[in-house]
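YM 10:42: Amino acid transporter transmembrane domain-containing protein sequence, as discussed on the call
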Amino acid sequence: MADYDSGMRKSRDIESGGDVKVPETAHQISQDSWLQIAFILTTGINSAYVLGYSGTVMVPLGWVGGTVGLVFAAALSLYANALLAKLHELGGKRHIRYRDLAGHIYGKNAYALTWALQYINLFMINTGYIILAGQALKAMYVLFRDDHVMKLPYFIVIAGFVCALFAFGVPHLSALRIWLGFSNFFSIIYIVIAFVLALNDGKKALPRDYNIPGSTATKVFSCIGGFANLFFSFNTGMLPEIQATVKQPVVGNMVKALVFQFTIGLVPMFAITLMGYWAYGNETSAYLLNNVSGPVWVKAVANISAFLQSVIALHIFASPMYEYLDTKFGPTKGTAFSLNHISFRVLVRGGYLTVNTLVSALLPFLGDFMSLTGAFSTFPLTFILANHMYLMAKKHKLSIPKKLWHWLNIIFFSVMSVAAGVSAVRLILADSKTYNIFADL
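YM 10:58: structure's back
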């Protein structure tokens, strides 16, 4: 099949080493070490979202389901992402965008569908980051002045504005560099603080209730939603775009980065998720710092760290949208920090994040968005499509047992995607009846 990429400004290709070619893009390609990519992946997995997994994963699944599910989902996620990484140079050409790879294998219709799925996925992830950043600001405000004058939607607007300022100053994914160090530093701060405070609370607390709350029907839907949240927590939905920035050999370096992500990178995430649930049981909230008790200044440091880390992490998941807009419509002359480039970013990225911020303020139900994203985007992109693309690309080289294994993955995650989608919509409708739009949660 031919490649389909309406995002290219020119049809010619540029060499990327050897006989492997890469489509032209306004962003940088093949500039980053595998370790920098590993930190990008680790930043995503240990973002401020980890402060919600005790409540959104463990509470609906319980000790056995949640703990076994974390290990199971991590193993399947590493496997699926490794499959995608190995397809990056399929057909002698680097596929630097998810839609490029789908278009190469299936054709124009799959290219468009993959593009739509991916941007829905990333839009909802970005929406979640703005909600998280707003929650962190509100939690810090409440520590010092719990007068209900400033409400969550106000803090979400402030968070969206700061995210836009950061987007204006960081032109592309490779330019994050030192910001990745700050991001991981901020992650360590709020994870360590939340872990220690939850540990202290758990030691002093009365026996906790670890039963899954709700009626039988509610438990079923919550369990399905928690399962979707599990896979959401491990996956980016933009692996080819991240792999595009890594130096040659791109497959080997990407696999190294993935192994780092799913070994060392998982330790903080597992630790805070299990500790939060142990300390508070089924009373754990979707933002763990709302549960912990301790010195006000310590909790303030944790909240401001979560806010700043969310601002940086959002840029990672917004970068595919930025890359398309910059390549298709951006100015072609001048440096990344020339007036015309900065003006373009202010106009275009500012508009995109304004829409994100509006949706975040309208429906600030973080756990529901995680379930919906897992159902409609993470499952299809990371598991269903990855396994089927690998089958299509390697069909003459795979044994029958291996083909059956991939089909089993495709069928299983297709069923889970439908079930999780129904569950997520039900949860959002239920929350919408409980809370008004622009709710102050």
